[in-house]
Design brief:
7 strands, two-stranded antiparallel ribbon, Multidrug-efflux Transporter Regulator, Chain: A, Domain 2, elongated, Rossmann fold, about 325 residues, alpha/beta
Length: about 325
């Protein structure tokens, strides 16, 4: 996976959406959607429905079974308690409020990896910022931001990417997650004492149309943690401003993410114009556009094909 595509804005899709349901602006799920999100096989979900009445799927006028947000929330809660050792028959006897209270109780305790992912998914669905922050803060306090990103946040985002593509989460959920994670990265970055003699130096930025702010912020954190000098120009940086910054600062490295085409400018022309201002600077690139076989990359351009490769490069240069 390339470094960039975390928390892309994905258009919600489901396996099906009939016209009447779409008109009501309902997010609906097939049983396969529930299987992919909960990890419970569709066959088992059907058994739980029939034997314990845990959910009652609705049917369209053409007799297609579908599930709602409430069904997904209940299934995730049921799965959480089931993994904690509750018998499914006992869960089936509980009302929804009791199930939710028991899940909330576990959020106050130390959670295992799988428990944390399940709990965070529930907190996102409920827009529960208090508990969502609490679980993340606990992990960051114990293991630091880098390990939290690798061990918890990236697996969570991978799971959420499936959820967004199947229509399980709305834009408000994406915004909620992005803002919380952004605040954690910014806090951790500010906590690192900058050094006047820090080196090597980097300019990092995103061109117009790129929506990978979290990736850029995390890169800033990793560079600063590696005692590098970082000039973060931010997002929506046009070509003239970028070349001005290059001519002014003359950094050792220039880093950006290229997933989208540059508006009103061929990618080859964009790269060539930057190359004219690089001087002794090396340009580091990642993103889907680096796979374009038609682009001739200048000698001063280095392609980084993964997050791991990017971080390894940073740490190697910082030695």
């Amino acid at each position: 996976m390339y470094f960039a595509p975390y928390l892309n804005l994905l258009t919600p899709l489901t396996h099906y959406k009939e016209t009447a349901l779409a008109a009501l602006n309902m997010v609906v799920y097939s049983i396969k959607d529930l299987e992919s999100l909960s990890g419970v096989k569709a066959h088992t979900i059907r058994i739980w429905e029939k034997r314990y009445k845990l959910m009652e799927p609705k049917r369209t006028k053409t007799n297609i079974r579908y599930y709602t947000d409430d069904d997904l929330r209940k299934l995730l809660n049921v799965c959480f308690l089931y993994k904690k050792g509750y018998k499914i028959s006992k869960i089936g006897e509980m009302c929804q409020d009791t199930i939710k209270d028991k899940v909330s109780h576990y959020s106050k305790l130390n959670l295992s990896f799988e428990d944390q992912l399940d709990a965070l998914l529930l907190f996102i669905l409920e827009l529960d910022s208090y508990n969502f922050n609490k679980v993340l803060d606990q992990h960051i306090q114990q293991k630091g931001l880098e390990e939290t990103m690798n061990e918890l946040i990236y697996p969570l985002l991978d799971k959420l990417s499936v959820a967004w593509m199947t229509g399980s989460f709305l834009h408000v959920h994406e915004s909620f997650v992005a803002q919380v994670i952004k605040s954690k990265i910014l806090t951790a970055t500010e906590a690192i004492q900058a050094k006047r003699t820090a080196k090597p130096s980097y300019i990092i930025y995103l061109p117009p149309s790129e929506k990978q702010e979290l990736s850029l912020l995390y890169l800033h954190y990793m560079l600063k943690a590696s005692s590098c000098k970082v000039i973060n120009l931010g997002c929506d940086i046009n070509l003239s401003d970028l070349t001005f910054a290059l001519d002014t600062c003359k950094p050792d490295f220039l880093f950006t993410i290229l997933n989208e085409e540059i508006f009103n400018l061929p990618m080859q022309s964009y790269i060539d114009q930057i190359n004219e201002h690089l001087g002794s600077t090396q340009m580091l690139l990642t993103g889907y556009q680096t796979l374009n076989p038609k682009i001739q990359w200048p000698e001063k351009v280095k392609i980084l094909q993964s997050l791991t490769q990017t971080l390894e490069f940073i740490k190697k240069q910082a030695k």
